[in-house]
Write a structure and sequence with these properties.
three-stranded antiparallel β-sheet; nine-stranded antiparallel β-sheet; alpha+beta
């Protein structure tokens, strides 16, 4: 969904506090807008799709520390609608990183090797090559939110209307700041 050396057209637009990728895929255009929501320690991915079939597969490799070697200490788990991770060996050992989505993911893995093999096996725990990998059913509007806020603070941002409002607020705040 982002600019890549894949031969597919992708227009990228940057603004203060947000970025948008318009990717031309076979069957339609997918537009992804990313921003950090004011007042919530979270990044929001607002995804609008012309595609009607298939699934969106999203993955974020987890390190949660200063160096790539710190990834070995990451612990992952599922807590209801959220995938969660923390690294007890990091300088912020109690900080939990979470990811939630709308529509909710229908399968996942927290093991990068499983994700690379296309195995959405629900793996969680410590000692794996940690990641969040989600399979979301395709929809016209999808919202993925990840950050270090509590699940209850992240979930409202997964609602498309709330995500659009948060984007407008982010753009307005940056417009005021940048003049």
């Amino acid at each position: 969904l982002f600019a890549a050396n894949d031969g597919l057209e992708c227009a990228v637009t940057y603004g203060f506090g947000w970025a948008r990728w318009e990717k031309h895929l076979p069957g339609g255009i997918v537009t992804t807008t990313a921003f950090v929501s004011a007042g919530t320690a979270a990044r929001v991915f607002l995804i609008q799709s012309e595609l009607s079939k298939g699934a969106l597969r999203w993955r974020a490799d987890l390190q949660l520390g200063e160096t790539r070697r710190d990834a070995a200490g990451v612990e992952t788990w599922q807590d209801g609608a959220a995938l969660c991770a923390r690294n007890p060996a990091s300088v912020f050992p109690e900080t939990v990183f979470r990811a939630v989505s709308d529509p909710p993911f229908d399968s996942f893995t927290c093991d990068r090797i499983s994700a690379d093999l296309g195995k959405w096996d629900g793996s969680t725990g410590a000692g794996a090559s940690p990641c969040f990998a989600m399979n979301l059913p395709m929809a016209k509007t999808m919202v993925l939110v990840c950050g270090c806020a509590e699940t209850d603070a992240l979930l409202p941002l997964t609602q498309p209307e709330a995500a659009f409002i948060a984007l407008e607020q982010t753009q307005a705040r940056w417009q005021e700041t940048a003049g």
